Amino acid sequence: MSFSEVLGKAVKKFNEKYILIPEIKKVFDKYKGRSVTLNITDDTIYVFHFKDDGIAFETSPQKSPNDMYIETCKEVFQRIVEERKIRVQDVLQGKISWKNINLRDVRSIRKLLKLKHLNIERI
Hints:
two-stranded parallel ribbon; 28% strand
């Protein structure tokens, strides 16, 4: 299954929960109007727009928003998805870079997506 299919299914599942679970809506509200650009350098660019009715997802847009930005390669992203954690070595070695995202945002997104195990691995 391609990253696009996996991410598309995750967005669809989130949007279904967003309608039904008030706790998700409460956390989500502070991100409305923002977007996350996920640039998989050896794949494509994925953009997630936080809107009133949930998340809108697009692939390879003509122009990416200049908001929250994450960049990595397929190998590292696959490992993040499978292991549900970010390795500090990958960050220190420049395999993952980001801007306009902080640890508070990571915690909020984990809470939004109900990802209890997505964390930053300690060395």
